[in-house]
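Lab meeting notes turned into a lecture example. A postdoc, R.K., suggested we walk through two folding results consecutively so the class can see how the record format repeats. The first protein's sequence and structure tokens come next.
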Amino acid sequence: MGAWNRGLFDNDSALDAVGNMFDRLGIQQYLEDADGEDIEESGEERDARHRVALDERLPSFGLDGIGAYETVILAAMAMRLGARLPDGLRSAARERLPAASEEEHYFFDEARGEVAAALSKYRDGSPWPFAQKGLFETMAEKAGMGLINEPPKGPR
């Protein structure tokens, strides 16, 4: 799919990076029952579960072997959820921010600026409001402006 907007989490690369980092941290993104069926969870419940897991695991998580983009995404995800941001992760994200690749990851200047601001102003426990527009919201908006193909109206 690529990028549907220019925000930090408005592209597949960012969502894949979040999933990869959660896997490395041993955090289950979605809950399943014993039969492997998804357990219904509200967005707030999932975010709270992820915040608690990040608070437990980030202080001892090593950043060796993790690329610049993934480091920035991990820090941004922790800030988005309001988790405690260890000093080592904050400083690593600041240092690695310039090396995170726009071409490879759809990491646009707007997102880079948002992350830089968040890294300097973020306070643990207060979720950071990164600008984010979902894929379907973006598609609906563009359809209303005639920028994407719309299905024909009326009977076929």
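The second example is placed directly after the first for contrast:
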Amino acid sequence: MKLSKVSKKINVLRGDISNLQDRIDGCVRELEDNEYSEDFAELHARLLVKKDRLIALKNARMKANVDNGVYEIILGLGEAKAYLSWLNGIDVSSGKSRGRMYDDAKTVSYKSQISVAEKQAMIDTVKAEIEEMVDKLDEFNVVTDIAV
């Protein structure tokens, strides 16, 4: 099975598991005079089967990623996204501003070690790196078969 299909199956299983958990939450306890809406044991058994299948698929996917050197790209992608998020939050504005930390709210001046243009160039570089990593992963997922 292609890794791209495995990823889709993983997402479906996650949804199925969430649905079963919600159904169990809704049926496990009932007013004393009412009938149970669904059988806990049956739903729980189905949940455990899906959980085991999910673990098997994730394990097979991870093994393929590690064995083929792709796991490093996955880790790099996560770090690049975290770095991009941090970079987007840096305030590099300079100039005069009304201070918020002063009781008299006097005007204060700020300076920055990098310009807005330099920050944007850094963001653009990281976005290009992320796009390159995503393209590599997408290609790997489409062409790689694994036994599950």
